[in-house]
From TrEMBL:
Similarity field: Belongs to the small leucine-rich proteoglycan (SLRP) family. SLRP class II subfamily.
InterPro entries: Leu-rich_rpt, Leu-rich_rpt_typical-subtyp, LRR_dom_sf, LRRNT, SLRP
Domain LRRNT: from-to ranges: 22-56
Organism of derivation: Myripristis murdjan
The name this protein goes by in its record: Fibromodulin
């Protein structure tokens, strides 16, 4: 999503022979990459013994149900820990030292498990945390306390109803994906360095007055499939420079909200828009004042191509795609 890829994290050979006297028999430890251990897709139900030299541990696509404190006692040098697509439950993850002693851990992938909360006592070194496709209902400030280095947080496809002020201390966060949850409002205290915000498939019907006041570096906002109405969007909320892409499709809007002339991609399809208001894109039009919009989607609304003003070509002179 965005320019962050969730692929390409495999290093070394997946077909390597089991080597090294301390390598568990059920895993592969390639000699060409001695700090990696591949235990993925082996039908494992329990955590293997992890040699202290390991930095990259691949345990995805198994049937592991628990991460006891004892299983990671020697895994203090881990940098990447991949445990997605397992059967982990929150009550079976150790709360004392399970992850806490991994002072260099940067990536923790726990998506597609059975977690009901974010694991506690995560190391402050984490940069990339993925807990999507679980059963998490609430995120508290304690869950993310001290995560100063966290850059990416994938929480999508859970059952989150409330995040409180849990994001307040995430001063390095650039990508937040909480789409596919049960949020009724935008999370509070969005981090100032946020670059991408994904809130699709929730039940949000309004935005706070200061929605984009602090997040001046935000470039991508996706809020499709919510319950947004004109009344729920304060005036000029999206008329801010820096925004590159705005997706408000599949909501309940009746008017085109005013946007900045610097916006490049606007998606408003499948709303209830009844009028093409050119003033939403350009307050004045001349040689230097015009919209930088390249993509405009208005299909699935209550307007047709005949409703587009004849002078729109001057304002939207860069638009290569206008669908009505």
């Amino acid at each position: 999503m965005g320019y962050y890829s969730c692929q390409g994290y495999y290093l070394g050979s997946l077909q390597a022979d089991n080597t090294g006297g301390d390598c568990p028999p059920e895993c592969d430890c390639p000699p060409t990459f001695p700090v990696a251990m591949y235990c993925d897709g082996r039908g494992l139900k329990v955590m293997p013994t992890i040699p202290s030299r390991m930095k990259y541990l691949y345990l995805q696509n198994n049937a592991i149900t628990a991460v006891p404190d004892s299983s990671l006692v020697n895994a203090t040098n881990l940098v990447w820990l991949m445990m997605h697509y397992n059967q982990l439950t929150s009550d079976k993850i150790g709360e004392k030292v399970a992850f806490l002693k991994m002072q260099g851990l940067e990536r923790l992938y726990l998506q597609h498990n059975n977690l009901t909360r974010i694991p506690r006592n995560l190391p402050r070194s984490l940069r990339d945390l993925r807990v999507s496709h679980n059963s998490i209902e609430k995120v508290t400030p304690a869950d993310l306390e001290g995560m100063d280095n966290l850059t990416i947080l994938y929480l999508h496809d859970n059952a989150v109803t409330d995040m409180g002020t849990s994001l307040k201390g995430l001063k390095s966060l650039m990508l937040l994906d909480v789409s596919g949850n049960k949020l009724k409002k935008v999370p509070q205290a969005l981090p100032e360095r946020l670059h991408q915000l994904y809130l699709e498939f929730n039940s949000i019907d309004s935005l706070p007055d200061d929605f984009l006041g602090r997040v001046t570096q935000l470039q991508y906002i996706r809020m499709a499939h919510n319950e947004l109405t004109d009344k729920g969007i304060p005036p000029n909320t999206f008329n801010v420079t820096g925004l590159v892409e705005l997706d408000l499709s599949y909501n309940k809007l009746e008017r085109i909200p005013p946007v900045s002339t610097t916006l490049q991609h606007l998606y408003l399809q499948a709303n209830q828009i009844k009028e093409f208001t050119l003033g939403s894109f350009c307050s004045i039009v001349d040689v230097t004042n015009f919209s930088r919009l390249q993509t405009l989607r208005l299909d699935g609304n209550e307007i047709s191509s005949q409703d587009v003003p004849t002078d729109s070509a001057l304002c939207l002179r860069l638009a290569s795609t206008i669908e009505v």
